[in-house]
UniProtKB/TrEMBL annotation:
Keyword set includes Metal-binding: no
This protein's UniProt keywords: Glycoprotein, Glycosidase, Hydrolase
Species of origin: Bombyx mori
GO MF entry, a single one: beta-glucosidase activity
Protein name: Myrosinase 1-like
Subunit structure: Homodimer.
Protein family according to the UniProt entry: Belongs to the glycosyl hydrolase 1 family.
PANTHER family on file: GLYCOSYL HYDROLASE (PTHR10353), LP05116P (PTHR10353:SF36)
GO biological process terms held by the UniProt record: carbohydrate metabolic process
Lineage, uppermost ranks: Eukaryota, Metazoa, Ecdysozoa, Arthropoda, Hexapoda
UniProt keyword annotation of Glycoprotein present: yes
Length: 492
């Protein structure tokens, strides 16, 4: 509970912006309308239905392809400054390549972008939120070096089509999930398990793809459109269990955060040195002739370094880290432990669990991460591009309000006490949607969606009212919410 003496500190800086996020596969539906081709998620949910908790898929999802008008209404109700959504690559480029551009696909995004702007809401567009055209996967997907060029061509198409109105771009959402999560566990598309080689190839080529798109924008589009472009990384906060676990914790952070951020944001560029060494030693021990972490040449290091306009931070949860005991059995990274680093990943009994098996609540984690980023990469402008909370449903979602309040409060502390330049907050997510392998069970929405109704009826939860009042007040010092008892409302 925040005492009222602190209330003056609860205001956000005047320029601070609030938004909400979604992604194409999770909300659009319309998986096979017009000339859209299949993405790896269309394939994965069919071939691996057993992995999805309720065997569901995103064929219809929230049907935002047809119901986008209601989405706009909700965004207006919330009063958000921006809406972060993603473009489906196979909807715009059904062949995966720019030899053929779908008129209907382009029309959908033009209509959405124009409707947002008419309502004074900025579009913040993610180019890739996990729905790769299946055809490109058949050619190796993110493990094929050519994908850097394929992605650049897709990015060019998007910049040419929408760049006059879209001023903030995210290239790739969470390469950590696309590479580490995907190829270590097979629990997300493309469902291939190949932990020793694939995550590292994918790591390099997502970075190269990102860098190409950034450089393309910088060279050919920035001077006329004056926008910003970066990548969105998913960061766990890792905290040492005891003082003796500090070193292994730092390695775990470098493996999760550094492997996708150091090459872009550090002064020196390239892989984090500690990671380079560990993976080299592991690869040799496993009998390979050299490190499975692909080399970044001097030229590539320079090419990737500095390709950012801000730090896009997605954050949800934390882990405690301790050194594994000799012979201790470890489960795979990143869903269990970090066997490559002899690290056990644990959670504190003080962190409430949620409806998602991987998610335990530890609000201080986000501020610690912001401090870690500052310490390692210097002063950055940070956009929190995702943060949110899952439960099993219900519109009186006090748990979600608490999560949002506590996380936004930690961000305020980072801004005011640590002098970190966080300029935006994005709530994940606008409405309940297709939560990947958790299907429709785990719900992150500010709006409830009735998935049994053809209209996919959307109803605001208490958290929507809370978020709306925070945005309106530009402060966490918000008037008492009638539906729930908000302990930090400072209205006493
Ligand atoms: C974000 O990823 C995504 O960008 C968004 O699409 C998604 O809806 C949202 O979070 C909520 O999940 O194998 O059980 O240990 C968050 C990244 C997703 C990474 C879950 C870790 C662990 C799953 N995290 N994952 S598990």
């Amino acid at each position: 509970v925040i005492s009222c003496g602190f209330c003056g500190e609860l205001n956000f800086p005047p320029e601070f912006k609030f938004g909400v996020a979604s992604s194409a596969y999770q909300i659009e539906g319309a998986w096979n309308v017009s000339d859209k081709s299949e993405s790896i998620w269309d394939t994965f949910t069919r071939e691996h239905a057993d992995i999805i908790s309720d065997r569901s898929n995103g064929d219809v999802a929230c049907d935002s392809y047809h119901l986008w008008r209601r989405d706009i209404e909700m965004l207006v109700e919330l009063g958000v400054h921006f809406y972060r959504f993603s473009i489906s690559w196979p909807r715009v480029l059904p062949t995966g390549f720019p030899n053929y551009i779908s008129e209907d696909g382009v029309k959908y995004y033009n209509t959405l972008i124009n409707a947002l702007l008419e309502n004074g809401i900025e579009p913040l567009v993610t180019l890739y939120h996990w729905d790769l055209p299946q055809r490109l996967q058949d050619l190796g997907g993110w493990t094929n070096p050519h994908i850097a060029e394929w992605f650049e061509n897709y990015a060019r198409t998007a910049f040419e089509l929408f760049g006059d109105r879209v001023k903030t771009w995210i290239t790739i959402n969470e390469p950590f999930v696309v590479c580490d999560m995907a190829y270590n566990t097979g629990l997300v598309a493309p469902g291939i398990i190949d932990p020793e080689i694939a995550p590292y190839l994918c790591n390099k080529y997502t970075l190269m793809a990102h860098a190409r798109a950034w450089r393309l924008y910088d060279k050919e589009f920035r001077h006329k459109y004056h926008g910003k472009i970066s990548i969105a990384n998913q960061l766990f906060w890792f905290q040492p269990l005891t003082d003796e676990d500090k070193e292994v914790t730092e390695l775990a952070l470098e493996n999760c955060v550094g492997r996708y951020s150091h090459p872009i944001y550090s002064k020196k560029g390239g892989w984090p040195p500690s990671i380079e060494k560990t993976i080299h030693d592991n690869s040799r021990r496993q009998g390979y002739l050299k490190s499975n972490l692909p080399v970044l040449t001097k030229q590539e290091i320079e090419y990737i370094k500095g390709t950012y306009d801000f730090f896009g931070l997605n954050h949800y949860t934390s882990r405690l880290v301790r050194k594994a005991e000799t012979g201790e059995k470890l489960s795979p990274w990143p869903i269990g432990d970090a066997p490559d680093f002899d690290a056990r990943l644990l959670v504190s009994p003080h962190w409430p669990k949620t409806s998602s098996s991987w998610f335990f609540v530890n609000p201080p984690g986000i501020r610690k991460l912001l401090q870690w980023l500052k310490k390692n990469y210097g002063d950055l402008t940070v956009l929190v591009t995702e943060n949110g909370f899952p439960n099993l449903g219900g519109v009186e979602d006090v748990d979600r309000i608490n999560y949002y309040r506590d996380n936004m409060h930690e961000i305020l502390l980072a801004i005011k006490k640590d002098k970190i330049n966080v300029t935006a907050y994005t709530a994940w997510t606008l409405m309940d949607n297709y939560e990947w392998m958790d299907g429709y069970k785990s719900k992150f929405g500010l709006y409830h969606v009735d998935f049994t109704s053809p209209q996919r009826t959307r109803t605001p939860k208490a958290s929507a009212e809370y978020y709306k009042s925070v945005i309106k007040a530009h402060s966490l010092k918000v008037p008492h919410i009638i539906r729930v008892n908000n302990p930090s409302s400072c209205s006493r």
